[in-house]
Amino acid sequence: MVTNKKLTVLAACISGLICLVLLLIKVYISISYLPDISGSETSAILPIQRLSDGLPIYTDPEEPTFLMTQYTPIYFVIGSFFVNLLGFEGHEVHKIFLLSRLISITFTLLACAVVWYVLYKRTNKNVLLSSLATFFIYQVLAFWFLTSSRPDSLLVLSFSLFVCSAFKALDQKNDKSLWWIAAIFFAVTSFFIKQSGAIHAISLGLFLIYTKQWKIFLKVLGFGILFFTAYLFVLPTSSMDVFFTNIIGGVANSVSWGWFYDWTLEKLLLQFAPLLAINFAIAGISLTRRDNLYYQFLAICSILLFILSSSAAFKVGAGVGYFQTYLVASVILITMFIHEKKDEFQLKNILNISVVNTYLVLVAVHCILFVYDRYTKSNLNFFTAQYIEQRDIARFLSEEKNLKDSEYVYICQPDNFNGYYLNHFLYKNSLVPFPDIVYLADKNKTFDFKELNKLVATNRIKYVVSEKHKEPVTILGQPFTKLNKIYSTERLDVYQGY
Question: Which member of 198, 318, 350, 429 has the greatest number of CB atoms within 10 A?
Fold first, then answer.
């Protein structure tokens, strides 16, 4: 006879197996030479290369090399630490890509382990329910793929630890609990992983105000300021004005409804509408429950995270990555609620159990089919050839042309990743290493790139690399003049100014 437990065990086994396959796919792709597995991987790798070589990652965006580092630095610091620990050189590009990808996989798995622990404690040690919820989170994170080789993976881990610390503090029911200090530490840390993490500290503060825990609020506020100040001095932030110019101006992109639809509405709000509706219903109920601070805390977190994420998602370049911490908060809240109300909602009924388990299995199957289809469409042999070709160009410039650190190389990067890896092989020399960011900043008049135009007009850029048989122009549309072609490969031409 089929029982509720057997159905749930079967669903957990299928879901867990799919998680394992997803993990294997992620590792396999990480080892490959696929140029960009996260949508903006280069924005994480280049700062790691620079930090590991003792170079600043926050510089004046209006001066050569027109570098803009969009994110706060903790992920880059961790990445560069391991680069130096393992003895990698900055020009060993694939090794650094692989390292960052494996670091992100590790952070994501650790985040899921923390979530499982939190749920295990809050559901009276219900292993099956905790596992199903955690599997669901990992599958969706893999489906969105934005925790791959990006600070987002560490942000999800930091948020998970933030929730765990807050729950530990609530367990102790003590104003003097050190777990409150741990909670604000992880909240402030989140900001220095990625700016959107600032909402974690705001959520904690609003929760303490909402529940009128004034002594704890003042203590958390004081320690929050202390941790924030300490990070500013300890981390490689350069000067304060340059640091904040990068992390604020670098993400001040224009707003686009079309971008929001393609990258957020279609990929999240429509596909996971049932999850969103259930979360908002439970969050609304939870805010009125004065008897349960855990629910109120998660309700405030999930609501604020959703508002922030939805607002940020209209920005060009944004996507479902902003919803990753919201996913964690909402799933924890829903799982706790289901466990508490399972009798009231007849969740022991075999039909209801079948519906829930079927939904979870379908989500798992959907996620793995999407990920498998996305990566199997990639011609990995082609990208390996690209990597070798661009490495050869870097060697030609370095060994045969004696490229100096003070000489600039402009790499025209079309959409097919020609020049993508070269940008990293020549990380000391590359002018405008993030051309899409410069393009948007110029379009929105966030920064003035007249110095770039002067460099081109006065022929002070030593080398230019462009797609084969195409006239080289800057990302701002300015053509280069007085160039001699000195080297060609199957896909790229290399020019020298004269």
Answer: 429
Residues in the chain: 498
The angle formed by the CA atoms of residues 459, 460 and 462, to the nearest 5 degrees, is 100
Quick one: tokens of 61?
A: 């965006």
CA proximity to 196, closest of 294, 93, 313, 110: 313
The amino acid at residue 14 is: I
Token digits for 208? 């303490």
pTM beyond 0.85: yes
* Cα–Cα distances in angstroms (integers) from residue 159 to residues 204, 252, 278, in the given order: 12, 24, 21
Burial class of residue 413 (count of CB atoms within 10 Å of its CB; 0-12, 13-18, 19+): buried
Residue in the structure block whose two tokens are 């998680």: 19
Distance from chain centroid for Cα 70: 12
CA distance 406 to 422: 17
Using CB atoms within 10 A of its CB, is residue 201 exposed (0-12), middle (13-18) or buried (19+)? buried
Nearest alpha carbon to residue 248 among 35, 68, 74? 68
Amino acid 358 reads T
How far apart (Å, rounded) are the C-alpha atoms in residues 208 and 217?
6
Pick the closest to residue 425 from 398, 397, 391, 401 (CA basis).
Answer: 391
Are 22 and 368 spatial neighbours (Cβ–Cβ below 8 Å)? yes
Tens-binned pLDDT, residue by residue, of the chain (498 aa)? 446 778 889 999 999 999 999 999 999 999 999 988 887 899 999 999 999 999 999 999 999 999 999 999 999 999 999 999 999 999 999 999 999 999 999 999 999 999 999 999 999 999 999 999 999 999 999 988 777 889 999 999 999 999 999 999 999 988 889 999 999 999 999 999 999 999 999 999 999 999 999 999 999 999 999 999 999 999 999 889 999 999 988 777 767 777 777 777 776 677 778 888 899 999 999 998 777 999 999 999 999 999 988 888 787 777 777 889 999 999 999 999 988 877 555 555 655 677 888 889 999 999 999 898 888 888 899 999 999 999 999 999 999 999 999 999 999 977 778 889 999 999 999 999 999 889 989 988 899 999 999 999 999 999 999 999 899 999 999 999 889 999 999 999 999 988
